[in-house]
Design a protein that fits this description.
The chain is built from 5 helices and 9 strands, in the order ββαβββββααβααβ. It has 193 residues and is α/β, with parallel strands linked by helices. Strands 2-1-5-3-4 form a 5-stranded mixed sheet, covered by helices on one side. Strands 6-7 form a two-stranded antiparallel ribbon. Helix 3 runs parallel beside helix 5.
């Protein structure tokens, strides 16, 4: 938990489609601390505490569409009135709370054995989700496979994996991107004989 003032301020958050609060929270407390200490949502990781590793990434859904925000360097009160998704909000659960279905990203990461210790995984899940949702809303077009690979690299490259499991994360997301109906990969040119 980071240092924080004792000046409290009421905070209401909308996280994973559910309203939380109002709760009295120090006015300079970072979101990751509020998630962990006040709301019991511990899936978002506190990594470097400087916004560099991005293990703390959450998704904000607003008029600009989904976007990543680093919760270890962004004050919780910034999120008042915004819709937030954390890693806990991706899988589908039944009324009894039992897991029913992982998100496509989570399933692809499992299928590709993408993570090792898993500490960075919540950030990667959120980054990949933002990329795929944004890409899925683009007009249909033809891509070179390298273009898709570059989009994945650009989206995931800021995220650090201390176990260096990058390749499998990238492969999983590339596979999902290539399955989007609006992403068509140009056929390889025939080799002249």
């Amino acid at each position: 938990m980071s240092q924080s003032s004792l000046r409290l301020k009421p905070l209401t958050l909308r996280i994973n489609g559910r309203s939380y609060g109002p709760v009295e929270v120090p006015d300079d407390m970072m979101l990751v601390d509020v998630l962990h200490e006040y709301l019991g949502l511990t899936g978002t990781r506190f990594g470097c505490g400087q916004g560099v590793c991005r293990a703390c990434t959450v998704i904000v859904d607003d008029e600009q569409g989904p976007r990543e925000v680093r919760s270890c360097v962004t004050g919780a009160h910034y999120f008042e009135g915004k819709a937030i998704r954390t890693v806990e909000g991706h899988a589908k659960h039944g009324a009894d709370g039992a897991l029913q279905e992982l998100s496509a990203v989570q399933q692809a990461f499992l299928d590709h054995f993408s993570f090792q210790c898993g500490y960075c995984t919540p950030g990667f899940v959120n980054a990949a989700t933002v990329l795929l949702e944004r890409l899925g809303k683009q007009p249909a077009r033809d891509y070179e496979r390298e273009e898709v690979r570059a989009l994945v690299l650009e989206a995931l490259n800021p995220h650090l994996c201390r176990c260096t499991g990058y390749v499998r994360y990238y492969q999983a997301v590339e596979e999902l991107a290539l399955k989007l109906p609006n992403v068509r990969v140009r056929a390889a040119a025939e080799t002249p004989r």
